[in-house]
Design brief:
The complex is a heterodimer of chains A (about 450) and B (about 425).
Chain A (H helix, E strand, L loop, with lengths): L2 H4 L11 H37 L17 H18 L4 H5 L2 E5 L7 H14 L15 H6 L1 E5 L28 H20 L4 H6 L1 H12 L14 E2 L2 E2 L2 H29 L2 H4 L3 H19 L2 H12 L4 H25 L3 H9 L4 H32 L11 H10 L2 H30 L1
Antiparallel strand pairs in A: 1-2, 3-4
Helix pairs in contact in A: 2-3, 2-7, 9-18, 10-14, 10-16, 12-14, 13-14, 14-16, 15-16, 16-18, 17-18
Chain B lengths: L7 H49 L11 H18 L3 H6 L1 E4 L8 H15 L3 H4 L4 H6 L2 E4 L14 H32 L5 H8 L6 H32 L7 H20 L2 H12 L4 H26 L3 H9 L4 H36 L5 H11 L3 H29 L1
Antiparallel strand pairs in B: 1-2
Classes of the chains: A mainly alpha (about 450), B mainly alpha (about 425).
Chain lengths: ~450, ~425
C-alpha cells in the first residue's frame, strides 16, 4: 500500500518522507524508553531509601539488598510505565526533550485537559495491543489522532525533507522559564535525587573525613619526607621472583616495559588499521567481512581495561613478572591504537587513492604511496600519546601482579613504610612528567 | 617629594616583563644543555651497567662505578664541550645552532672562550640574568634558529626510509631487551594457558549465583564515578576561570593562575590509585567507597580544571569585545559572551571525564576502595577464577555501555 494512502486521513503529516517517518518513530520509541527508565531510576531510589531509612519497619531481609518480593517486580514495572505515560501527556517530558520531540495540538492553540486524559486512555488501546495504533499510520498513531495532538520534532530530523514545516508550530507562544517546564524541574529533581542517593550508596561520611584529618596529616608528612634509601640500593628484605631490586632497577624495567609494549603494539596495530578502515576494505564482501572482524576485535579488546588484562596475564605467566605487564599493555595498545589509526585512515583525502588506483597500483602500492603519507604524522602523534598512557598505566598494573615499579609501591604500602612509598611516588611522578613533557613536545614538532 | 606619581603597577609590570624575558633566555640556553647532559649521563650509566653486568654478573651489576658526583660533573662538562665544539643532540632537537655574528661558523678560539665563560656565567646563574647572557657577550657566539640550506638533502629522520629503519632498530632492540627480561615467562605463555581457562570460561557462562551482589557493587562503582564527576565539575567550573591565561590579568590574577596550574599539574600526575591508597588510610576502609570517591574527585578536579581552562583560553575574544562595547558589565560579558561559547564543550568534557571515572572507579576498587573492583581483587586473591571472570564480564559490559553512550552524546554535542 503506498504511503500516501496510509496517511490520507492525516492532514498534518501528509507529505512526510519515508526516512523522516522512521526517524520520528525511532525518536518516539527511544524517548518513551528514556522516560520509563527515568521512573525506573526513581523507583530504584525509593527502594533504596526504604531500605536505608526504614528497614526496621519492613519485615524480611530487605536491608542493603536491592530485592523486591515476587509481586513487587510487575507492580514496579507497570507503575513506572503508567507514570511515564502520564508525564508524557502532561507536559514536555524529559525523554521528549532529550530526543527533540514535542506534543502539539492539531486544533486550537493549546491541548486541553480532556484531550490529555483521552490520550492517556487511548494509549492503552493503541500500544499494548500489539501496537495496533501504529499499524496503519506509524507517524500518527490512534492515540495521537483521536486525541487531536501530534508529536512534532523540535529539531529537523536527519534525512527529513519537506512536510515537517506544515506542522502547527508554537513559535508565537512565550518561552517558559526552564524550571517551569516539566523537563526542567524533572532534571533538577533527578540531580538532587542522584546526589542524595549517591551520598548514601558511596557511604560518604564527612565526619570520618574531618575526625581523622590529623591521621591523614601524619601520613602526608611521612610521604612528603621521602626516604630514598632504596633508590639505588636493593632492599634485602623485598624479594620478587628470587631477585632483589632497587627503585631505580624497577623504574628502568618499567620504562622498558612501556617501550616494548608500545613498539610491539604499534607494529601490530599499524597493518591491522588498514584492514579496519572502511574506505580501503569496503569494496567487496570479503573486504567488508575482514573490516567487520578487525573492528569488532578492536572494540571488544579495547573495552577490557589494561588492568583486567594484567590480572589475566599475571595468573597466566606468573605473579609479579614484567612479561605479564608487557602482554597486558601490548594487547590494549593494539586495540586502542588500531581504532585510532583506522579512524585516521578513514578520514583521508580520497583523491590520491583514486589517482594511484587509476594508474594501476596494487593494493599495497596504494597504501604505500597514497595512504601512508597522509596518515603518518597523526600515527606518530597517536603512538607517542599511547606511550604516555602506557607509562602511566605501567606504574599501577603491578597492583594485580604485572610487575614494574608499582610492585614496590604496593609492597611498602602494605608494610606501612610511608616515607619509602613517598620516594616511589616521587620517582613515578618525575618519570610521568618527563614522559608527558617529552611526548607532548615531540607531538607538537611532528604535527608542525 | 617629587610631583611625579609613583607608578607602582607599571614598575611591577616592567619587572615582570623583564623576568619573563630572562626566563625565556634561560630556557633557550638551558634546554639543549639539559638534554645533552641527560643523554651523556644516561649513556654513561647504561655503559657502566652493561659492562658490570657482563663483568660481575647480573647480581652485582651497578649503575655507578665512580661516585655519583663525578658522573654528574663529567656529564655536565662533556655536554658543555659538545655544545661548544659542534652540533649537539640538544641543538638538533631544539633546531638551533651555535653561530657567531651574521651566522658565521664559530672558530676554535671563540668556542674555547665560550666553554670557559660558560662556567662563570651559568653556574652562579649570574650571567643568565644579563641579556644577552655573559658567555654570549664574551664569546660572540649565540644559539640561533637553525635554517636549512636550500637544496640540502632532508635529514634522515625526515625521510620515510630513515624512519622505517629507525623503527625497525627500535623493534629489534626492544625485543631483545624484552626477551632478556622475561625469557622464563615466555615459556609459561605457552605451557600455562590452562591457568586462565576458568576466566575465559566465565566470560561465556557467568556464575549467576553472585550476579545480584556483583550488580549492587557495580551500582556503587557507577555512583562513585557520578558523584566524583559532579562534585569535581561543580568545583572545576569556577576554578577554570582562574586557570585560564587570557582571563587572569594583573599581578594577582597571574599569581592565581600560576599557583592553580602548578597545584593541578601535581595533583593530576598522581594516579587515582595512589590517591585511593591515601584516602583509604584517611577515612579508613569502613568507608571504602567514600575513599574511592574522594580519590576520583581529586583527580577529576585537576583534570577538568585543565580541560575547562584550555577551552576558555581558546574562546573568541572578538565577541567579548563586541559585548563590552555595548556597555555591558563584567557579569553580563560573562553571561552573554563567555557562557554560550563554553557550555557545550564543558558538558562534553564532563561526559568524557565521567567515562574515564567509570573505568577508574573499577581500578581504585582494586586497592580496596569499594565497588566492584574490590570484589574482583577479593576473588582473584582467593583464586576463585570463575567468579572473577563473572565480575570481569560485568565490568566490561558496563564500561562498554557507558563508553558508547558517552561518545554518542559527545558527538551530538560537538
Amino acid at each position: 500500500m503506498p504511503i500516501d494512502a496510509r496517511t490520507a486521513g492525516s492532514t498534518v503529516l501528509a507529505g512526510l518522507a519515508r526516512p523522516a517517518v522512521r526517524g520520528l518513530l525511532k525518536r518516539r520509541v527511544l524517548s518513551f524508553f528514556l522516560d520509563w527508565a527515568i521512573w525506573g531510576y526513581v523507583a530504584f531510589a525509593v527502594m533504596y531509601f526504604l531500605n536505608h531509612y526504614w528497614y526496621t519497619w519492613i519485615p524480611g531481609h530487605w536491608y542493603d539488598t536491592l530485592t523486591l518480593p515476587a509481586w513487587g517486580w510487575p507492580v514496579t514495572v507497570l507503575a513506572t510505565l503508567e507514570l511515564a505515560i502520564v508525564c508524557r501527556n502532561s507536559g514536555w517530558s524529559l525523554g521528549m526533550r532529550a530526543f527533540g520531540l514535542r506534543l502539539v495540538p492539531m486544533h486550537g492553540d493549546r491541548i486541553t485537559l480532556p484531550r490529555r486524559v483521552a490520550r492517556v486512555v487511548l494509549w492503552h488501546a493503541s500500544v499494548p495491543l500489539a501496537f495496533m495504533g501504529f499499524w496503519f499510520s506509524p507517524e500518527h498513531p490512534w492515540h495521537d489522532r483521536f486525541a487531536g495532538v501530534a508529536l512534532r520534532p523540535t529539531r529537523r530530523l536527519r534525512g527529513a525533507g519537506a512536510g515537517l514545516d506544515d506542522l502547527p508550530d508554537d513559535e508565537g507562544r512565550p518561552e517558559k522559564r526552564v524550571l517551569l517546564t516539566q523537563w526542567g524541574w524533572m532534571s533538577l529533581f533527578l540531580l538532587v535525587l542522584t546526589f542524595w542517593l549517591g551520598w548514601l550508596i558511596t557511604e560518604a561520611n564527612l565526619s570520618a573525613l574531618a575526625s581523622r584529618a590529623s591521621k591523614a596529616g601524619d601520613l602526608f608528612r611521612q610521604i612528603a619526607r621521602p626516604d630514598f634509601r632504596y633508590f639505588l640500593h636493593e632492599d634485602p628484605i623485598f624479594v620478587l621472583r628470587r631477585g632483589t631490586y632497587s627503585i631505580l632497577d624497577l623504574m628502568v624495567l618499567t620504562l622498558y616495559m612501556t617501550l616494548l609494549s608500545t613498539v610491539l603494539g604499534t607494529a601490530v596495530a599499524f597493518p591491522l588499521s588498514f584492514l579496519g578502515a572502511r574506505n580501503i576494505m569496503g569494496f567487496n564482501a570479503v573486504g567488508l567481512l575482514i573490516y567487520t572482524l578487525v573492528r569488532g576485535f578492536f572494540n571488544v579488546f579495547r573495552a577490557i581495561e589494561t588492568l583486567l588484562w594484567a590480572t589475566v596475564f599475571a595468573v597466566w605467566v606468573g605473579w609479579g613478572s614484567p612479561f605479564a605487564g608487557i602482554l597486558a599493555l601490548t594487547i590494549h595498545t593494539v586495540a586502542a591504537l588500531g581504532k585510532l589509526f583506522s579512524e585516521q585512515v578513514e578520514g583521508i583525502d580520497a583523491g590520491p587513492v583514486e589517482a594511484a588506483r587509476a594508474s594501476g597500483a596494487s593494493f599495497l602500492q596504494v597504501i604505500r604511496y597514497a595512504v601512508i603519507p597522509q596518515v603518518m604524522p597523526a600515527f606518530w602523534a597517536f603512538t607517542l600519546y599511547r606511550w604516555d598512557i602506557n607509562v602511566r598505566m605501567s606504574t599501577v598494573i603491578a597492583l594485580v601482579g604485572a610487575g614494574g615499579v608499582g610492585t614496590l609501591l604496593f609492597y611498602y604500602k602494605n608494610e606501612g613504610q610511608w616515607s619509602i612509598v613517598g620516594a616511589v611516588v616521587i620517582a613515578i611522578i618525575a618519570v610521568v612528567w618527563i614522559m608527558d613533557y617529552l611526548s607532548g613536545w615531540l607531538r607538537e614538532r611532528i604535527i608542525r | 617629594m617629587s610631583g611625579k606619581p609613583v607608578d607602582a603597577m607599571g614598575a611591577l609590570r616592567r619587572t615582570a616583563d623583564g623576568a619573563t624575558r630572562t626566563l625565556a633566555q634561560a630556557h633557550r640556553e638551558l634546554s639543549p644543555f639539559f638534554v645533552d647532559a641527560l643523554a651523556v649521563g644516561l649513556a654513561w650509566i647504561l655503559v657502566t651497567y652493561a659492562v658490570s653486568w657482563f663483568a660481575f654478573g647480573s647480581e652485582k651489576a651497578v649503575y655507578f662505578l665512580v661516585p655519583w658526583w663525578i658522573v654528574l660533573v663529567g656529564s655536565i662538562e662533556t655536554a658543555v664541550l659538545w655544545e661548544s665544539f659542534g652540533v649537539s643532540l640538544g641543538h638538533t632537537l631544539f633546531r638551533v645552532r651555535l653561530l657567531g655574528a651574521s651566522r658565521r661558523k664559530p672558530t676554535t678560539a671563540r668556542s674555547l672562550v665560550r666553554v670557559l665563560t660558560w662556567h662563570v656565567s651559568v653556574f652562579p646563574l649570574v650571567g643568565l640574568v644579563l641579556r644577552p647572557s655573559l658567555h654570549e657577550r664574551l664569546s660572540g657566539l649565540s644559539l640561533q634558529p637553525f635554517v636549512a640550506e636550500p637544496g640540502a638533502p632532508k635529514r634522515w629522520y625526515r625521510r620515510s626510509t630513515g624512519i622505517y629503519v629507525a623503527f625497525l632498530l627500535v623493534v629489534i632492540g626492544a625485543g631483545a631487551v624484552g626477551v632478556t627480561i622475561t625469557v622464563d615467562n615466555l615459556v609459561r605463555l605457552f605451557t600455562d594457558a590452562w591457568r586462565v581457562a576458568p576466566i575465559w570460561k566465565a566470560l561465556v557462562s557467568p556464575n549467576l549465583a553472585i550476579l545480584r551482589e556483583s550488580l549492587s557493587d557495580l551500582v556503587v562503582t557507577i555512583f562513585m564515578a557520578i558523584m566524583a564527576t559532579l562534585f569535581a565539575a561543580i568545583l572545576a567550573v569556577p576554578l577554570s576561570f582562574f586557570a585560564a591565561r587570557n582571563l587572569t590579568r594583573g599581578v594577582a590574577g597571574r599569581l592565581a593562575y600560576t599557583i592553580l596550574r602548578g597545584v593541578m599539574s601535581i595533583f593530576r600526575s598522581i594516579e587515582p590509585i595512589v590517591w585511593a591508597i591515601v584516602f583509604l588510610v584517611w577515612v579508613t576502609s569502613e568507608h571504602a567507597s567514600f575513599a574511592g570517591l574522594l580519590a576520583l574527585w581529586v583527580h577529576s578536579i585537576a583534570d577538568l580544571t585543565k580541560l575547562y581552562a584550555e577551552r576558555l583560553e581558546s574562546i573568541d575574544e572578538g565577541l567579548l569585545e563586541a559585548i563590552t562595547a555595548t556597555g555591558a558589565g563584567r557579569l553580563q560579558v560573562l553571561r552573554y559572551g563567555v557562557v554560550p561559547q563554553i557550555v557545550n564543550p564543558y558538558i562534553s568534557f564532563t561526559l568524557y571525564r565521567f567515562d574515564i571515572n567509570v573505568r577508574m572507579a573499577t581500578v581504585v576498587g582494586l586497592v580496596g576502595a569499594g565497588g566492584i573492583g574490590q570484589r574482583l581483587i577479593a576473588y582473584l586473591s582467593g583464586q576463585r577464577y570463575p567468579n572473577a571472570g563473572t565480575v570481569m564480564l560485568l565490568i566490561v559490559l558496563a564500561v562498554w555501555a557507558i563508553d558508547y553512550l558517552s561518545s554518542r552524546l559527545r558527538s551530538k554535542l560537538n
